[in-house]
């Protein structure tokens, strides 16, 4: 198969769909790979690195979109990219279609076979192609929080780890899934006093075995959120109710009662955010202040550490990408977990939640994925 890797064009997005190591894996299996010139240069993957891995460097995205059988990307295609996609071509990338009717309409018009990283599943009910970016964002949340607790960055001037003779800062993490667990590890590593809330007792028990008493594990109720947020220097929002908008767990009232200069990091902003006062921000301008509390709500946190994130993402996307390259649509027929990633095919919506949100509005029909790939 001919694989095409265009340079990402979303604002301040420096990740790239394939690392040189991943390119080599495709080439070793007999596939041809085209990479857009300077697609990875910003994160230290040079054109020479890609050529050494067996890729052909191509100057224009138009050539890549026109000739590739499969396009491998990171972020959702921008409108001018959607217009270059076509029927019979596979698009393999993050899509986040449900809140994005314009992209959904353009992908339907293109007729492309669009596979969304974020809806591919595994046998344990996890989202294996979302998980690595949740790991990155969870770890970054404490780094970002610590930075913004510094006085010059708007915070109270608190060092999370404290020093001998001074108590450490208090971190509250709401949600103990992938993001919350990684956040807790970083906060513990810095020496902070950490409390984590989840409403799954099963998960709290698992976390008890991981943290062995080093993290205070509390069942998530409105009362617990009120109590612990008032004492916290840093609160991380890390909840997810799959497919749904995040619940607003920390209200404006709670935030008014927090200590001045404390910091909120709302990682769940992707799903609308779990703090009442959250609105999406960017790496360029990541914070704003409400009631003396610093809010950090960057919607693509992994893009801030694009080199680490590219490698982590490739570790997860590679096996499924190779299966698609080797077998085409037959890979979807053979693997129900990969098939859950199919969101659009030949103008049909093939992911139920996306159709529920957008089908009527766009006048697009739903086709069950297994039926869709047979048409
Ligand atoms: N801003 C960014 O750049 C990124 C954001 N994310 C987002 O981070 C969020 C979390 O993702 P993951 O950790 O991978 O999800 P996950 O599914 O692994 O964990 C979510 C946890 O939230 C818990 N939860 C649900 N309702 C709760 C409540 N009322 N109180 C306390 N806990 C509750 C669940 O029991 C679960 O343990 C998602 O919205 C995801 O899209 C992920 C990656 C990057
Ligand atoms: C998960 C996602 O959308 C991102 O990493 O940008
Ligand atoms: Mg995102």
Automatic annotation (TrEMBL):
InterPro entries (UniProt xref): Ala_DH, Ala_DH/PNT_CS2, AlaDH/PNT_N, AlaDH/PNT_NAD(H)-bd, NAD(P)-bd_dom_sf
Residue positions binding substrate: 15, 75
GO cellular component labels: plasma membrane
Keywords from the UniProt entry: NAD, Nucleotide-binding, Oxidoreductase
GO molecular function, one term: nucleotide binding
CDD domains registered for this protein in UniProt: L-AlaDH (cd05305)
Residue positions binding NAD(+): 134, 198, 203, 220, 239-240, 267-270, 298-301
One Pfam family this sequence matches: AlaDh_PNT_C
Classification via Gene3D superfamilies: NAD(P)-binding Rossmann-like Domain
Domain of life: Bacteria
Cross-referenced SMART domains: AlaDh_PNT_C, AlaDh_PNT_N
Domain Alanine dehydrogenase/pyridine nucleotide transhydrogenase NAD(H)-binding: 149-297
EC number per UniProt: 1.4.1.1
Keyword NAD: yes
Residue positions of the active site: 96 (proton donor/acceptor), 270 (proton donor/acceptor)
Keyword Ligase: no
Family in the record: Belongs to the AlaDH/PNT family.
The protein, known as: Alanine dehydrogenase
